[in-house]
């Protein structure tokens, strides 16, 4: 049984050295970051495809994805389009408002195919609190309101984000617990006479 690896999915302009995603990645020696060809041009389908090509090169997973801002939208689009995606869980922090980019109709209408948590803020300039709550309900994501936390990025004071690390650890543990019966069943079959 393989423990899920961490996949970092940044938003516009990437996540700099002081960003919580970089902090999270530096604390995980097996973490992988999705690198977009153009960090300043938010193209939903290209960014989603880039997630796919990154995972193809890296191997089958499983993966736990930690996304921010427009990266959240790209990750959700990728999950909706790829039935065999290798992602076990998704952390969506401060997603950008899809209406700002004209992509709301390209996002799933219902539950995401993986366990997810959406973290929003009361003062996020990229997505209203009501909007974040709406998408969390629509995707059946666990919902967390961080309060007056801006865009939950370095400019808002988020280098370390312990909530993200705890969630990744918890998602890994949950994944491993869910796989134990499968492993026990395989062992039983291998010893059956």
Detailed description of the structure:
The longest helix has 30 residues, at 162-191. The protein has one domain (5-191): Alpha/Beta hydrolase fold, catalytic domain (Rossmann fold, 3-Layer(aba) Sandwich), CATH 3.40.50.1820. It is built from 6 helices and 6 strands. The protein has a 6-stranded parallel β-sheet, sandwiched between helices. The protein has helices spanning 20-26, 44-58, 70-81, 98-101, 129-138, 162-191; strands at 5-9, 32-33, 63-68, 87-93, 115-120, 142-145. By secondary structure, it is an alpha/beta fold.
Summarize the structure.
The protein has 193 residues and is of the alpha/beta class. It has helices spanning 20-26, 44-58, 70-81, 98-101, 129-138, 162-191, and strands spanning 5-9, 32-33, 63-68, 87-93, 115-120, 142-145.
Topology:
Layout: E1 5-9, H1 20-26, E2 32-33, H2 44-58, E3 63-68, H3 70-81, E4 87-93, H4 98-101, E5 115-120, H5 129-138, E6 142-145, H6 162-191
Parallel strand pairs: 1-2, 1-3, 3-4, 4-5, 5-6
Helix pairs in contact: 2-3
| CATH fold call | Rossmann fold
Strand order of the largest sheet: 2-1-3-4-5-6
Please work out how many helical segments DSSP would assign.
Answer: 6
* C-alpha Rg (nearest Å): 17 Å
The CATH homology group name? Alpha/Beta hydrolase fold, catalytic domain
**N-to-C order of helices and strands:** EHEHEHEHEHEH
- The strand count comes to 6
* Overall geometry: globular
How many domains would you count in the coordinates?
A: 1
Multimer state: single chain
What are the low-pLDDT stretches, counting only 5+ consecutive residues below 50? none
**Would you state the CATH class?**
Alpha Beta
| Separation, N- and C-terminal Cα atoms | 24 Å
